[in-house]
Amino acid sequence: MRRWLAPILAAPLAGCAAAGEPAPPAPTASAEVTGTLFVANKRGNTLSKIDLATGEEVLRRESCTNPHELATSPDGRHVALACYGGTSVDIFAVDDLSRFARIDIGSGARPHGIVWHRSGSIYVSAEGRRSIARIEEPLIGEQRVTEFATGKSGSHMLAVAPDESAAWTTDLGSRTVTRIDLAGTAAPLSVTVGEEPEGIALSPDGETLWVSARGSNQAFALDPVTMDVRARVETGAFPLRLAIRPQGDVAVTSDLADGGLSVIDLDTAGVIRAIAVSSPEEAEARVQVTILWSDDGNRIYVAETASNSVAEVDYASGKVLRRLPTGEGGDGLAILP
How far apart, in whole angstroms, are the C-alpha atoms of residue 116 and residue 166? Predict the structure, then answer.
């Protein structure tokens, strides 16, 4: 196993030392940031709530075993957590992080990637069942859970079409990306995309599916219907995740092995700049994983799992404004304005 896989895929690991250099001082503009950041702490089995105005962690609650990805409800009142070490999606109230519901996906599910669709339904990958699940009406007592098979190993992250006609998964173990027809009228369509595809995002116009393949240091643009590869882009080392700016002009990959972000112009399908979140020497001490844009597209939040922090990066300047403390092993991120 290469050295970068161990901190990500292993069960709870021994704590790594945080990088020694202090974070650069935040510019005055950072005081204007408002909103709330939620962090799933996968080694601490907790959920954190961070006030972005002050940068302080204001609340931390026990969650579930090995929690990973997070998603917020369309009304902003709840946050859903994929319990990767178990079989459930857990829902918490955002005000006090009290557990609102626990929805079981099935034996051996290992839920990971999660999307709370604007329709109100939750979609989650069930890696251990080689499937995804749709949870309808998740905030009422009689949730309807429908499972869709991918048939692939390690269906890890997912994206969902705005009209809920289809969903797509990155299948780490099978080296594939799979399109799932949510109407149930067509069989899943899988294509091989690089080595260890993991990051995935659908462009805001729904016309292009973007995938990062961490094992081949590349990002790919796919036709979301035919699954043909339209373009491939060389990125930084080990592009674990990919996130598209809300404006739809660029995507960034979190290049775990060199501590940076590659910025990809979506029109030209080329890297236009690189942002250093940490130095290559610091990368192993920080282990950046999940990336998330602020709603206005001005900031990028980068979970640094080994140093129990989230870096807040100014997109325009590429500067790290501050590092926000989290619980142990902060990974999954969600934000409310």
Answer: 14
